[in-house]
Specification:
InterPro entries: AB_hydrolase_1, AB_hydrolase_fold, AB_hydrolase_sf
Helix content: 25-40%
GO molecular function, one term: monoacylglycerol lipase activity
Number of strands: 8
CATH superfamily: Alpha/Beta hydrolase fold, catalytic domain
Protein name: Alpha/beta-hydrolase
Keywords: Hydrolase
Pfam families: Abhydrolase_1 (PF00561)
CATH class: Alpha Beta
Order of helices and strands: EEEHEHEHEHHHHEHEHHH
Oligomer: single chain
Number of helices: 11
Distance between the termini: 37 Å
Radius of gyration: 18 Å
Largest sheet: 8 strands, mixed
Structural class: alpha/beta
Strand order of the largest sheet: 1-2-4-3-5-6-7-8
Amino acid sequence: MTTAQTAKTQYVTAANGTKFAYRRIGTSTAIPLVTHIHYRANMDFWDPLFINSLAANRPVIIFDQSGVGRSTGEIPNTFQGWADDLIAFVKALGLEQIDLLGFSMGGCAVQMVALTAPELVRKLIIAGSAASMPTAETVTGIVWPRDQADVKYIIDLNDAVTPEEVKHTIEYTFFPEDKIGRDAAEASWNRVLERNVEGEPKNLKLVDKDTGAKVQLATFLEDWIVPNPRNSFDRLGELKMPVLVMNGDHDELVPTSQSWELAVKIENAQLIIYPHAGHGFIYQYAELVGQNVSRFLDGKDYQAIWPQL
């Protein structure tokens, strides 16, 4: 099986003019699982153990969005733009249907993909993410007012530049601040360093904080947390495909209660919370999360079996 450590980077040019860099992992002919990574990251930052666990039973496609990593173009300044970007990429690959996973800001993007092109997305996984800001002044059925992330974690993730700062910020913002968290962060980072493909040096530089990252952060602050009925929260009821929502029990970047929002507002959603974990739960529990995602993708829609329970 092609692995995250050995898969060669491929390129495809989409109708929007972007030359997308991507990798295909796994050998299965099942419906592909496409993944969208977090703020400032390119696909080299995916933990190989997590990706390989996902790819055990299906093809997994990782990619760099426009203006990130090895892809050309510019980073869109709305999550609808991120979604249009991903849809253009999938169409360029000639795929008629996919499963879709988004992590953190990638989770914001995949919600808009599923709302924009629901026929494209068979099943949706939203990891460590949140819906957009509701337009109503008060909302029932969720934690309100919303829990807010501590700005110190966002600042740390935003400011990292040097390799040492990048490693530190991922440990500090993604993992618990104790020995369990430090050990999990170190193990995950060492796995990231395992990638070794001839002619493809690892790119472990986060998106430049004064250019692309500035656009990404403004997208979140100005597009996602400013009420807009065209964004996801007011439209979550439109999502009819099965949805899996996941998070750690103490996410410092995207408060865990906002995963609960998604679970209650999406009709056909399931929620998994991982113990003693933060934003980086997908790396701390890489194999377990991969197994849970696989069970979700391979299993029946829980609503279809509800009468039998």
